[in-house]
Design goal:
- With 335 residues, the protein is an alpha/beta fold.
- The chain has a domain of 199 residues: NAD(P)-binding Rossmann-like Domain (Rossmann fold, 3-Layer(aba) Sandwich).
- The structure holds nicotinamide-adenine-dinucleotide (NAD) and 2'deoxy-thymidine-5'-diphospho-alpha-D-glucose.
Length: 335
């Protein structure tokens, strides 16, 4: 199968491309990515010479550029997005442009070129926060950040293109991913690398907010399964079944790195901060998927990866990220 992976230079997309090339010897992958601050070809250094892999620099909002890579494409997997909640609070224009309009451009390409499958990579955040119980795929969408609202817009377009034009869409909604190559703006890589640099760990609010964590390759395995065996027109929740509050995760990271709790800095809460995400994953489980990593093993491997690969994150943290972090931090401390 010849697959167009959009956003393949990001965290989950790059892990997905690696999985496809290793697992399916007959597959070819075209990685179409704009290389925003989050896109990084270092994520794919180990596979860039594979003859079954090709990188194309482009924007999913660019109709012509997308059309130019569609030759022979049998499936589209759309990972491309603006993905960070805090950045969407700072300004939502790029989120709406890429996550909603860019999705529409890809759906039109899928329709025109009659691709066999279109997989829209979405998020559990579209359901909003839940105090007790877990959301199923049938629950209504109640996004609370500009990021999750833009992702919900993309989902709605995918559903509409299936209903109206029979574009063979499938949506996956996963919980919080963690693992190698995650941009260090997200809590786990930020806290690991800050601890390694002897910088404070900025914990929002009281640290009681809960997320369900999934190791990135477990999500990629589920996406691969859904691509091959999922039912067209359906939505699949993909969660790790590892609900943890932020303070507990912070403590695990500090303990693993031999650092004390004085490294934690309590900072003002995120605006509109969702308290808890939880999804019911029965549908993807019935397809035959189960996560392979426990949270503790995955976290240990992730910490080891950041410890052993400073070449990857040190240049990120001293580049674009440094300015972003400075801005973020001064906003929060009110100075
Ligand atoms: P990421 O921010 O690490 O990577 C996003 C990638 O998309 C980057 O390579 C970037 O260059 C590319 N991109 C952005 N705008 C583009 C555009 N207009 N055209 C082409 N490429 C563009 O994100 P991630 O964490 O890997 O997330 C991937 C997808 O999974 C996103 O759709 C996100 O909403 C979703 N998701 C992420 C998580 C998570 O925990 N990280 C959980 C659930 C769902
Ligand atoms: O649930 C899936 C979503 O998970 C994805 O759709 C998003 O793309 C991904 O970014 C992630 O969103 P979160 O907002 O949950 O992830 P983040 O790592 O930004 O924050 C996780 C929790 O940690 C959240 O409760 C806020 C808190 N936090 C985050 C940062 C960056 C802190 O306490 N301090 C921080 O510095």
């Amino acid at each position: 199968m010849k697959i167009l992976v959009t956003g393949g230079a990001g965290f989950i997309g790059s892990n997905f491309i690696r999985l496809v090339l290793n697992k399916h010897p007959d597959d070819e992958v075209v990685n179409f990515d704009k290389l925003t601050y989050a896109g990084n070809l270092d994520n794919l250094k180990d596979i860039e010479a594979d003859p079954r892999y090709r990188f194309v620099h482009g924007d999913i909002c660019d109709v012509e550029a997308v059309g130019n890579v569609m030759d022979g494409i049998e499936a589209i997997i759309n990972f491309a997005a603006e993905s960070h909640v805090d950045r969407s609070i700072g300004g939502a224009a790029d989120f709406i442009q890429t996550d909603v309009y860019g999705t529409y451009v890809l759906l039109e390409a899928a329709r025109r070129h009659e691709v066999g499958r279109y997989v829209q990579i979405s998020t559990d955040e579209v359901y909003g926060s839940i105090r007790d119980g877990s959301f199923t795929e049938a629950d209504r969408l109640q996004p609370s950040s500009p990021y999750s609202a833009s992702k919900a817009g993309g989902d709605m377009q995918a559903m509409a293109y299936h209903a109206t034009f029979r574009v063979p869409t499938i949506i996956t909604r996963s919980s919080n991913n963690f693992g190698p190559y995650q941009y260090p703006e997200k809590i786990i890589p930020l806290f690991i690398t800050n601890a390694l640099e002897n910088k404070k760990l900025p914990l929002y609010g009281d640290g009681a907010n809960v997320r369900d964590w999934i190791y990135v390759t477990d999500n990629c395995e589920a996406i691969d399964l859904v691509l091959h065996r999922g039912k067209i027109g359906e939505i699949y929740n993909i969660g790790g079944g590892n609900e943890r509050d932020n303070l507990s995760i912070t403590r695990l990271i500090l303990a693993a790195l031999g650092k004390g709790e004085e490294m934690i800095e309590r900072v003002p809460d995120r605006l509109g901060h969702d308290f808890r995400y939880s999804i019911d994953c029965s549908k993807v489980t019935e397809l035959g998927w189960a996560p392979a990593r426990s949270f503790e093993d995955g976290l240990r491997e992730t910490i080891d990866w950041y410890v052993n690969n400073p070449w990857w994150w040190e240049k990120i943290k001293s580049g674009e990220f440094a300015q972003y972090y400075q801005q973020q931090y001064s906003n929060r401390s009110g100075s």
